[in-house]
Amino acid sequence: MSLQKLIIRRSLEILVIFFVILSGLFLLFHLAPGDPVSRMVDPTMTPEDAELLVSQLGLDQPLWLQYVYYVKNFFTGNFGVSFHYGRPVVEVIGERLPNTILLFTSSVILSALAGIFWGKMVAWHKGKPVDTWVTIISLVCHTLFLPWIALLFIWIFAYKIGGFPLNGMISPELWMDPDSGIFLKTLDIMHHMLLPLLTLFIIHVGSYLLIMRSSMLETLSEDYILTARAKGLNEKQIRNRHAGPNASLPVVTSVGLSLAFSINGGALTETVFTWPGIGRELIFAVSNNDYPLALASFLFISIVVLIANLVVDVLYAFLDPRIRY
């Protein structure tokens, strides 16, 4: 199977999975405990206003018809209006989603690159003190409780030392200053992003390192590594050009899973650091019964996760052509 056919097949599979998710979310929200209509209507409304809102939202229609409207609205980009913000849901998510992608994509890429590099090195020095200590540190990082390490960093670096902002993504006074250029604003975002990025880096790098170390040790015992040594290749060439690329395949899979599951942990990270991302917005929407915003947030998160897995499948097939068959 060619790479193009593989991409088409995976894309079709992802479309089917997403349709299942789309339907599942609709059922979950309607099967949740309590009356969905009462959760959507403000108790302070008059009966006439409440009836009008229910009619506008289509909640007085049969369930099957609501589902038809629900699917139609998704494919036409109509996610309704947020109850809290009073704005189209697409606008709210459009403002939050790039912030989440920026933070978590940066953390996953940096931690994966560091984990691959360090894991390759410690595997090459198996049994030596550096291998023992780095493995222990990686295990500790892998088991750290994310909210605890996030609050610890805020307390040390933002409160005690005072070199970092306590929360948020930008400094309002800087962004309101007309003399501030794009360079200063970019530095401001990076300054606010350092602590949450460091937190996520520490949480993820240990797992990548351990996976790479284990895969590298297995790869070094393969016959083609012995053949490369017999051909007279030096150790650096064997490690970086032959063993390293093949050993990194499991890490590529782990990156895709991390992008998928980091959205869940992202809600905690974004809440602790007050990072204006989709995860924090999701918690807010669920807590405040903002039905359209919560549903759309779940759907957009699903789309990001599925796209990330598609990219991982393509990268895996590119790195190892045997996957295509």
How are the secondary structure elements laid out?
Elements: H1 3-31, H2 36-40, H3 47-57, H4 63-75, H5 89-124, H6 129-143, H7 146-160, H8 172-176, H9 182-219, H10 223-230, H11 235-247, H12 249-272, H13 278-287, H14 291-319
Helix pairs in contact: 1-14, 5-9, 5-12, 5-14, 6-9, 7-9, 7-12, 9-11, 9-12, 12-13, 12-14, 13-14
Would you write up a description of this structure?
The protein is mostly helical and 325 residues long. It folds into two domains: 3-75, no CATH class; 89-324, MetI-like (MetI-like fold, Orthogonal Bundle), CATH 1.10.3720. The chain contains 14 helices and no strands. The chain has helices spanning 3-31, 36-40, 47-57, 63-75, 89-124, 129-143, 146-160, 172-176, 182-219, 223-230, 235-247, 249-272, 278-287, 291-319. Helix 5 crosses helix 9 (182-219), helix 5 runs parallel beside helix 14 (291-319) and helix 12 packs antiparallel against helix 14 (291-319). The mean pLDDT is 79.
Task: Quickly describe the structure.
By secondary structure, the protein is mainly α. The chain is 77% helix and 0% strand.
Radius of gyration: 24 Å
Percentage beta strand: under 5%
Distance between the termini: 5 Å
Shape call = globular
CATH topology of the largest domain: MetI-like fold
- CATH architecture classification of the largest domain: Orthogonal Bundle
Uncertain runs are none
Q: What is the level 1 CATH name of the largest domain?
A: Mainly Alpha
The name of the CATH superfamily of the largest domain reads MetI-like
Number of domains: 2
- Helix percentage range: over 70%
Structural class: mainly alpha
Largest sheet: none
Report mean pLDDT, rounded to a whole number.
79
Q: Counting H and I runs of at least 4 residues, what is the number of helices?
A: 14
What's the SSE pattern? Answer: HHHHHHHHHHHHHH
